[in-house]
Amino acid sequence: MAVLATVVVVAITFLHSQTSSIRAAENGRAADLATHAAETGIAAALDAMQNPSWQGVSVPLTAEVSRNEQGFAIYTVTFSKVSGDGTATGATAAALQVRLRSTGAWQAFGASRATERKVEAVVSLTPRLAGRPSRPGDVPSANDRASDVAGFSQAQNYALFAAEGSNSFSSRPQTRVSGDVWIGEQLSLFEDLLWSSTARQALLTGLGTDNGGGTGATSPHPLAGSMTFYVLPSAAQQADLISRLKVPYSTTSTRLTAPAFDASRFRKYRLFAGGFEYNAAELGSTLQASQNETLRPSESNPLGIFFCNGSLAVQNNVVVRGTLVAMSGITFEGRGISITPFDWRDGSGGTPVLDQNLWPVLPAVVAGGHVTFNAASQSFIGGTVLSAQDVVANTPDYVSESALLNYDGTATATPQGDGLSKVQVTDLLTLLSGLTINESHAVQFQSSGRWGEWYPVVTANTLTGAFQVRGTVEFSSPTTCRFRPRRVHHADIMGPLISRRALFANPPAWSAVSSSSWTAKYSAWQDKRNGILGLLLARPNLTFSQSLAEDGFPFEPTVRIARPQNVNYACEPPLFQPDPSSRSAGGGYRWEVVSWREVSS
User: Fold this and answer.
1) Rounded Cα–Cα distance for residues 423 and 478 (Å)
2) What radius of gyration do the chain's Cα atoms show?
3) The pLDDT value given to residue 4
């Protein structure tokens, strides 16, 4: 009996062992099938995301992988956000990434629970942009840049685009547009002053003679570019442009229309079509330095869009590293204002993306109503200003910061991002000889014999000659520069100005001159030309503008518009959409796998 009992125990143990082995094998096979389903889900999701018809991150993917007499395998893929590194640039870079989580399941027939395995991948959008360097397998014609709203792609080619109105553009003294101009209707040029037509024409002639015309015109020439009109300018205006200011112009039978943007579309937005939806940060009616004086992109708002559902007043020392949007008008009232859109740089000169200059940049300012710059404001706008109505600049008088030294030398300039650039003075010994430069200065560079725009100093280190300035400026080799006291009041727009009309007012110092004073100034100029003692003191080549400058009359522009050439401007989000062409022709987004791993939960 003992022997029999032993045999039975051994047999039972063997059967248990065999059963356990079979179960272990079955469990292992179920786990393998679930893992295979999860991996298949990731591959299927990547394939779907590279298809022009991808439905986006809000629609999970699920499908059956296999089925036999024992059961079936399925996968379900969900899409979620990736966290950034805590910086504004990192937040926007992370917004280009998507976390894919694929749950694979093997469901045996008759079993109460399925065997599940999870695989997770993080992928990063690397959109194909026009002008990009070629990559293996790339399709040169593919372009994932989102189409702009109607009218924007044409309007953004100009430094100033004034779509319509009886006076589309009012150009005034102490204003300057560096770049081409589109005028839908008429140009008003140096009007509404208490002077004679003879004095006005003499001044325009002097500006053209002293500063040249067209693209190479130097400051303080008001129009450094060419003009395109839809309505033929009058004979008098043609004479002002060609004969006096030496500004080339042309007409066209094709009327360009104002961009069909909608400020409300900035309130909720996506970085790329099919991507995650974000909410712009809401603003009240007044923006002050004591209330978030520096507004930046964040994980919940990766493009840094700040939205006012009405009219907005911008006051002292407000700094925005993003896009300022108002459903109605925006008025710039204070000093120390800086608005610069996110430009894909990381704040230290690096960039989280390849070919940074190819990536689209949103406007700095968007308004459903008028955009107004008060004469007492001090505003630096480092991007596009987009208005559904008029842009009005109450041209301030030229007043510089007092009791500051001047400095002329050479320097390099490197964009840092965050709306700033680094300027490094290269002739340091001259700088250290006693000059103090601080935030009350601005720097200007000379290129091809012409002085460019003013960049306000933010921080200064005269021991090392390193300065930080507002704006994006780049000179890789030592270039002639000059530091001067900053203008106390000004409106500088370093990007396209696009509006219904652009209306610049005469500065108070000019408007205050009476008709008799203008007559006296004109007579004084004639006396200088003819000479008091016959030919001995005659200066026949002296222009009226030179004579006014000699008498201390202000000419330095306090309203400046310039369009940088190396920026890819965009109108509104989303910035990217999958190329609509067929898959065989490169349609759909291009994604790169950042990581891939199995997860336990």
Assistant:
1) 10
2) 32
3) 41
pLDDT at position 6, please? 46
Residue pair 65/40 in contact (Cβ under 8 Å)? The answer is yes
- Give average pLDDT by consecutive 10-residue segment, the chain, 601 residues: 44 41 61 94 95 94 94 97 86 92 94 93 93 86 93 97 91 97 95 96 97 92 96 94 97 94 96 97 91 80 97 95 97 95 77 79 98 97 97 96 86 89 84 69 90 91 88 93 94 97 97 97 92 71 95 93 92 94 84 91 68
Both tokens assigned to 122: 């993080």
> Following DSSP, what letter does each residue of 499-562 receive, concatenated?
ESEEEEPPPHHHHT--HHHHHHHHHHHHHHHH-TTTTSS--TT--HHHHHHHTT---S-SEEEE
The bridge status of strand 337-340 relative to strand 559-562 is unpaired
Q: Quick check: pTM over 0.85? A: yes
**453-492 b/e with 16+ CB inside 10 Å = b?**
bbbbbbebebeebebbbbbbbebeeebebbbbbbbbbbbb
Q: What is the pLDDT of residue 166?
A: 81
- Which residues, in sequence order, are bridge partners of residue 118? 103, 599
Read off the tokens for 169: 């553009």
Q: Is 63 helix (H, G, I), strand (E, B) or coil?
A: strand
The Cα–Cα gap between 262 and 151 comes to 13
For residue 548, how many other CB atoms are within 10 A of its CB? 19
Distance CA 224, CA 370 (A): 25
- Stated as kind and residue range, the H or E segment containing 9 is helix 2-49
CB neighbour list of residue 147: distance below 8 Å, 6 or more residues apart: 577
CA torsion sign for 352, 358, 360, 365 is: positive
Measured CA to CA, the distance from residue 503 to residue 394 in angstroms comes to: 8
